[in-house]
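Design request, tokens follow.
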């Protein structure tokens, strides 16, 4: 039995205008959210992830609390958090290395989720946006990034189009 060959997912003909618009809009909005969160943390001289990490209650709480116990580890985590958010946000917004930004965003959101999951019986000192029985904005945004990973669009609309076209021509 011969398998049907799949067409190139980066070809414009594979998306309708509304599909491409929706995917690009989703990518840009998530990018803006990441960028904004990173910039807020960057420009707040008092921001640290210590409170969020100390509030951890689930399976990796020991690891997260040990990070806070080490000033060096905490500074590294804070630096990576701020600049990771900024880099992911910019990458998604302008479509530059968007596949890497998407995967990095999923990993970062997974860390946030594992640190403070919205499970019944867990209360946190930081205000939450509601109780949704295991679902919170981190999980929803992680799933949205997964959609962007399986329906790539930055090679159609984004700087990746220029970056990867030049690679192919060279």
């Amino acid at each position: 039995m011969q398998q049907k060959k799949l067409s190139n997912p980066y070809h414009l003909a594979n998306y309708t205008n509304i599909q491409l618009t929706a995917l690009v809009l989703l990518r840009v909005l998530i990018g803006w959210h990441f960028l904004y969160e990173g910039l807020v943390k960057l420009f707040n001289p008092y921001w640290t992830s210590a409170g969020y990490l100390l509030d951890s209650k689930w399976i990796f709480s020991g690891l997260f609390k040990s990070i806070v116990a080490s000033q060096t580890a905490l500074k590294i985590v804070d630096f990576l958090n701020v600049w990771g958010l900024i880099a992911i946000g910019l990458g998604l917004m302008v479509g530059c290395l968007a596949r890497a930004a998407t995967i990095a965003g999923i990993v970062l959101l997974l860390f946030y989720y594992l640190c403070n999951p919205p499970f019944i019986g867990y209360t946190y000192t930081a205000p939450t946006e509601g109780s949704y029985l295991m679902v919170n904005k981190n999980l929803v945004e992680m799933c949205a990034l997964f959609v962007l990973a399986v329906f790539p669009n930055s090679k159609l609309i984004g700087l990746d189009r220029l970056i990867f076209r030049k690679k192919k021509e060279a």
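Comment from the thread starter after seeing the answer: thanks! The CA atoms of residues 84 and 94 lie 16 Å apart.
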